[in-house]
Amino acid sequence: MQKTFRRPSPSMAVALLALFVALGGSSYAAVKISGSTIKKNTVTGKQVKERSLKKVPKAKAADTAVNATNATNATNAANATNATNATNATNAGNAATVGGKSADDLTSPTAFALVDAADATPEVPADQARGITAANVTKNGTFVCFNGLGFDPRHVQVTTYRVAGSTVEYVANATLDETTGFCPGAEQAAVQLVDPDAAGDNSVSDARFYIALYR
């Protein structure tokens, strides 16, 4: 018995043609589309799954990163934990230097000296001073004045110098207020020693003391 095949209907032919085109198009895309065929800056954030992107753990230069954990150079990072050089970092946890200064420079006094103002011309031994020389120190009555320093001090500490065997306990008065009038002109610091046990004018004319000035 001879079998006969029915010719597909026009709708069936159209459906089959659409199926073949769809299968062929996706195969072409899977084979032909790659990174080299995508034009630069044509893929936006809408086409990228952000969860599929990995973080960059070690960047050579992180100019404006908010957090630069292991960056070699973090110029403007808000937090530079392990940066070798953190020029303008808000927080530099383990930076070798901050603003070109080491930890010792930042924690130590900017200037210090032993001042001997027993005579009219104060003396500053060079081997017991840094940042202060005799040229920076003058005397006005019982006040010892400091001028011409290479910085503006924001904190001062004074310790009285005691000669061996002396029982006198002088008290140091110090100020960074240049408007006090204790010294002629605008002094950067002024120191006066007083004897709390003396009656009347208890200021000390032969003052000797150690001074430390901080930025």
Class based on secondary structure composition and strand pairing: alpha+beta
Specify the biggest β-sheet. Answer: 4 strands, antiparallel
Distance between the ends: 112 Å
Q: Name the overall outline.
A: rod-shaped
**Fraction of residues in helices?**
10-25%
Mean pLDDT across residues: 78
Taken as a percent bin, the fraction of beta residues is 15-25%
Rg (CA only):
39 Å
Search tags:
single chain; 215 residues; alpha+beta; 4-stranded antiparallel β-sheet; 2 helices; 22% strand; rod-shaped
Question: How would you characterize the overall build of this protein?
Answer:
It is a single chain. The protein is α+β, with helices and mostly antiparallel strands and 215 residues long. It contains 2 helices and 11 strands. It has a 4-stranded antiparallel β-sheet, with no helix packed on it. β6 and β7 form a beta hairpin. The longest helix is centred in the first third of the chain and has 23 residues, at 10-32. The protein is rod-shaped and about 140 Å long. The model has no long low-confidence stretch (mean pLDDT 78).
